[in-house]
Design goal:
- The chain has 2 domains: 154 residues; 144 residues.
- Helix 3 runs antiparallel to helix 7 and helix 9 packs across helix 12.
- With 353 residues, it is mainly α.
Length: 353
């Protein structure tokens, strides 16, 4: 495994630390009341994660709560990405994750929303944000790995200057979304559209069906798509396409897990997260090698250029070896896991919660 394959993903949540009990009742009386570990943990979890315990919850009720929650999270991450990007570049990464989650939620909930104008508006702006933030995220990854790869100071300075310039279009998008006729107005419209879906003839059957049962059906469909899409080639482009599909299906599976609480869907989420991390590290290495080659091509002939060319050639060979290893891993380990999950989800015992 080459040295650049290091995970940069932050964990989604941290376990709450247990509070030590006071030595005596008197000491306890002096101390302010504190939340229990269980209450603190549940406070951090999304409110709608409790919907899995309510078998009577319908699709439209659960979908409305989930979408409202995701939109609030997206607004929070976007603001941090604009105001605190120098102190913590990971805010951009979390904003992109939140935007992709929203995209997949809208994809799943499309039948409830119909042809609502706000749906088209939100999809358009999420796409613009992801497109504008992609080069900025690439530079954040490069700068993160620059020290470990011993990248020259001149190259790092060039990347930092480019990163500062790329913040301007992100700020412009955030300003458009925060206008009075922006995200808040369209959020209200989307939530109303989901509520009305229970009365529309075209969507009433789906909207009023069991949320947990619908989630299991959708997870079965996603599993079949993943099984069909497993790559047959070790090319970085083929693995990258599969990574994008895995990422989309992982976000959808997380939504379906919230709707159903099904243990098989939980195992599917864990499997997809594992694949996404492995292929994501490979893609980081590909981006780094591509950027290094671009910088090297612009250098004049010198000893430094020869050294950079040698490093780029070594990275290319390491990436090819890692791609081959990952393809073997997908075919020998991940494919059987997906097959097993699909079989268990389709059996009557697997469908029971």
């Amino acid at each position: 495994m080459i040295s650049v394959f290091r995970g940069t993903d932050a964990p989604d949540h941290h376990p709450a630390c247990l509070m030590s009990r006071p030595a005596s009742a008197a000491a306890a009386a002096k101390r302010p009341a504190k939340k229990s570990a269980e209450r603190r943990t549940s406070a951090k979890m999304p409110k709608v994660q409790a919907v899995a315990a309510d078998a009577a919850l319908t699709v439209w009720q659960a979908a409305r709560s989930l979408l409202k929650q995701e939109l609030k999270q997206f607004e929070k991450h976007l603001l941090k990405c604009i105001d605190r990007w120098r102190k913590k570049p990971d805010h951009l990464h979390q904003t992109r994750i939140s935007a992709r989650r929203l995209q997949q939620h809208l994809e799943l909930l499309g039948p409830l929303l119909g042809k609502d104008r706000s749906l088209r508006w939100l999809r358009k702006h999420l796409k613009s944000l992801l497109k504008a933030s992609s080069p900025a995220r690439d530079l954040d990854v490069l700068l993160h790995h620059a020290a470990a790869k011993k990248t020259s100071a001149a190259v790092c300075q060039q990347w930092q200057q480019q990163r500062r310039r790329l913040q301007k279009p992100l700020r412009e998008i955030q300003q458009r979304l925060s206008r009075p006729d922006g995200l808040k107005q369209h959020r209200r419209a989307l939530l109303k559209a989901i509520s009305r879906s229970a009365c529309r003839e075209s969507s009433a059957a789906l909207a009023n069906s069991s949320a947990s049962g619908w989630a299991v059906e959708q997870a079965t469909v996603r599993l079949a798509e993943l099984q069909t899409a497993l790559p047959a080639s070790s090319s970085s482009k083929s693995l990258h396409r599969f990574r994008l599909l895995v990422k989309q299906h992982r976000y959808q599976a997380e939504l379906l897990l919230q709707l159903s609480g099904h243990p098989i869907i939980q195992r599917l989420v864990q499997c997809l997260l594992q694949v996404q991390k492995q292929l994501g590290r490979l893609q980081d290495a590909v981006v780094a090698a591509r950027s290094l080659k671009k910088v090297t091509d612009n250098q004049k002939k010198s000893a430094g250029k020869k050294k950079s060319l040698a490093k780029a050639s070594q990275s290319t060979a390491e990436i090819a070896a890692e791609s081959s290893r990952l393809l073997t891993w997908l075919q020998s380990d991940i494919a059987p896991q997906l097959n097993s999950l699909a079989r268990r989800l389709q059996t009557p015992s697997g469908r029971r919660r």
